[in-house]
Amino acid sequence: MKWLKVSLMIQIILAVYFQAILWFPLGSWNDQPGKRLITLFSEGQALAVLGFALAMLLPVLLFALAFWKRWVWLMWVGLLGYGVWAVLQIQSWWIPWIFGADQLALNNQKFLQRTYKIFPSSIGHPSPDAMHFVLDLLIFLAVATIALGLLEYRRGAVIEGKP
After folding, report:
1. pTM for the whole thing?
2. Dihedral angle over CA of 25, 85, 93, 151, nearest 10
3. Domain ranges in the chain?
4. Label partner for 149 (CA 20 to 30 A): which of 27, 42, 47, 56?
5. ∠151-86-78 over CA atoms, to 5°?
6. Higher pLDDT, residue 161 or 126
C-alpha cells in the first residue's frame, strides 16, 4: 500500500495545482486564452464554475474513496483515466516538440508565446510551456505510482493467498 499512499499524495498535489492554474491568473505561468475561473465566478457564472471545478476534482476524490475502501477496481479505473490524460498530454505537447508539429499545433502555440518555457523551441518544434511541464510531470508520476501500487497490492494479495 506504500505506492498507493504515495500516489494519493501526488494526486492531491496535482489536483491543487490544476485548480490553481484554472482559477487564478498567474502571469506568464498560465497566460493562455480564456478567462480564469475566478473571473467567470465574479461575472455571475458561479454554478457552472463550481460544477466544472468539482468535476476536475472528481478523479482524486474517487481515488481517495477507492483507497479508503480498498476498492481495487476503482483504482484501476483511476489508472485508466490518468493514463488517457497522460497520452493526451504526450500527443499535445511532447510529440510536436520532439517530432515536429502540424500547422494547427503551430497556430495554437502562438497563444502561448508569453508563457515560461523550460525547453528550447525550434522552427516547427514548439516546446511545452513550464505550466504544462509541471502538470505533465505530476500526471506521469500519478500514473507510475498507481501502477506500482496496484502491482504491489496484487503481489501482497497473492502472497496472502487472496485471489
Report:
1. 0.91
2. 120
3. 2-159
4. 56
5. 45
6. 126
